[in-house]
Amino acid sequence: MEAKKNLTPALFVSHGSPMNAIAQNAYTQDLNKIGNALKNVSAVLVISAHWETNGLFVTASEDLATYHDFRGFPQELHEVEYPVKGALSLIPEIEKLIFEEVKQDTKRGLDHGAWSMLLHLFPEKKIPVLQLSIDKTRSFAEHLELAKKLAPLREENILILASGNMTHNFSHLNFGNMDAKPFAWAIEFDELVKDAFLSGDERALAEIDKAGDLFRMNHPSPDHFIPLLYLMGVKNENDRVQFPHMSWQYGTMSMRHILLS
Q1: How far, in Å, CA of 97 to CA of 148, rounded?
Q2: Parallel, antiparallel, or unpaired: how do β-strands 158-164 and 10-14 relate?
Q3: pTM exceeds 0.85 for this model
Q4: pLDDT digit string, tens, across residues 3-16
Q5: Residue 215 CB: number of other CB atoms within 10 A?
Q6: What are the sequence ranges of the domains in the chain?
Q7: Domain 10-260 CATH superfamily
Q8: Which residues of 77-94 are buried (b: 16+ CB within 10 A; e: fewer)?
């Protein structure tokens, strides 16, 4: 009988507003707890909603800069830095796993979907990071298949961190009330995705755009949904599915995290 392989946990975080980078609340405290349990990983491969490309790219700098890719926020947020080493040794491993060459961006740094979460997960800034872009030319099913090819990285003490949002509708967002009651359609979608992970229903996510108005209402653009496909793709049948944080912000944004272990 083949011995059960030890797999590093994999994590999806709903990153929400960039202001979560400097917040101190139950949401950030839960991120601290998650990071403390994962602090011995060798490297982090992060897939963030905020780096979309035509073709597949990776960061290829030895020292990753901090991208403040937003406007209209306090200067305090713009002054936050997350200097960290690039996990360049992962690049040839990824290419070998996916059977294709990835384009290397030597100038690209970490966007706020990545560093705003890493800041709370690993505040010591000692774990090297590699960011993989979201290739806009791929279908949901193709993103899922790409993620499956990356799954063996979990056998090498690599944390796969997917950063997006369970729900992400800005047009109905209640900017004046972070604690606004969530809309019924947002709750329904959050439960749909939650159930898909609990049951291991890949098709429910790969074909979720067929949910019609429910999907479009919660994700007018797919960028913040696609990272969920990467977590589903690296999921192992023996994984325990946990939700180490769940809250709502501004009435439309589920801040649910999903941890596979």
Answers
A1: 10
A2: parallel
A3: yes
A4: 457 899 999 999 98
A5: 17
A6: 10-260
A7: LigB-like (3.40.830.10)
A8: beeeebebbbbbebbebb
What does the H/E/C string look like for 65-102? CECCCCCCCCHHHHCCCCCEEECCCHHHHHHHHHCCCC
pLDDT for position 5: 73
Give first-to-last CA distance, the chain, whole Å: 22
Pairing outcome for strands 84-85 and 248-249? unpaired
Would you state the pLDDT for residue 172? 76
What is the chain's length?
A: 261
Q: For 120-169, write each residue's pLDDT tens digit.
A: 999 999 999 999 999 999 999 999 999 999 999 999 999 999 999 999 98
